[in-house]
Amino acid sequence: MGIMDFWKPARGQATQSVRAEPPLQAADADVQSERQWNGIVTAGRSKTGVRVDEKSALSIPATLQALRILTGVFAMTPLHYYERRQGGRFAVLEETEGKLFKVSPNSHQTPFAFLELLMADILLAGDFYAYVSRGLDGRARVLTRLKPGTVLVAEYFDRQEGTILFYDATLPDGTHERFPARDIFHVPGFSRNGLNGLNPIQYARDALGGAIATSDHTAKFWNKGGRPSTVLSTEQKVGSEDKRRIKEDWSKLYAGQDGEMIAVLDQDLKANFLTHDMRQSQFLETRQFQVVDLARIWGVPPHLIFDLSKATFGNIEQQSLEFVIYHLGPHYARLAQAATKAFAREGFYFEHVTDALVKGDLKSRMEAFWLQRQMGMVNGNELRSYENKPDIAGAAGTDYWMPSNFQVAGKSAESPPANGENE
């Protein structure tokens, strides 16, 4: 700009455009980093004083069984890729998107292992993240799981476009970048902000800490040979140094696994054992209640984690059906809709097939098959496919039945031919 430019009208000067990046706002200021789980940053402690993190939570047998049931059953349910066509829907396996969750999500995991890990991340960390590798045609081909704590969600709000998400992620090769939403496959769990899932370990810290503390108390009690606390008393005066020495000697000789050894006391010392009434303190009832409480945390029926105190053995089948509908159903919908939004092309969608999980007993299945066959809903080969049996050749397997006493609504029944008319 020359000195003469100052004399020009301001409205006549060209304005230099400056690119302004949208201000990004972190979705959750308390997003955990992976270092917290490695002990570099102190993990949260419950009111019992017990340190509660992912590893300590998994040390509870009820938690381990609940997660094993939820992740295993979830992973064994196939996620199909369907196309809507005239005449119904059709499963599409040869499409690239359909192979992600049905054939090979990446080079080292089976679909079962990938879905099992996906579910475990949602249950333990609240969110599942995966980096999406795309081909030259722009279609997703590989999903690489990102460890919990290595991804931070950032949001930008535009009045016309609404909320736009970005992801600050650290990839397995150590690089850290900000990625658009199309490059990160995100499946959040139950959420209060619509962006991040709630971490059950954080929100149920006290309940988990109580179970861990109870288990630790049991282990310490039996480590002492099942003996209660001991008090050594004497009528003589004992100095502080002698007290320390006597305490160390007693602990060294008679505590721990050597608690059954014979104690020899001098200086008129007497051993008094502090008794604990486990029945009066309801120790077993406490542990029993904690199992049910853990079942509530992870969303699994108590009988599936081997708590049969309320089971009647006549409602197990109904409880198993409820497990699929009420416990796994929301997780099925959560993943199917997230996959549809992220990968499905127009006219396609993902959906879980839970037929194998809701099968009744053999008698009930056969009765249902017989009704479907009589009503003309299925043919023989379709029924045989339900039981993993090969097709029958010819019309015997492809024909549909129609009851002879049925007729089309609105049409009069045709009268039978007269005697000798067709002769």
TrEMBL record:
Pfam families: Phage_portal. Coiled coil: none annotated. Gene3D superfamilies: 1.20.1270.210, 3.30.1120.70, 3.40.140.120. NCBIfam families: portal_HK97. This is Phage portal protein, HK97 family. It comes from Sulfitobacter pontiacus.
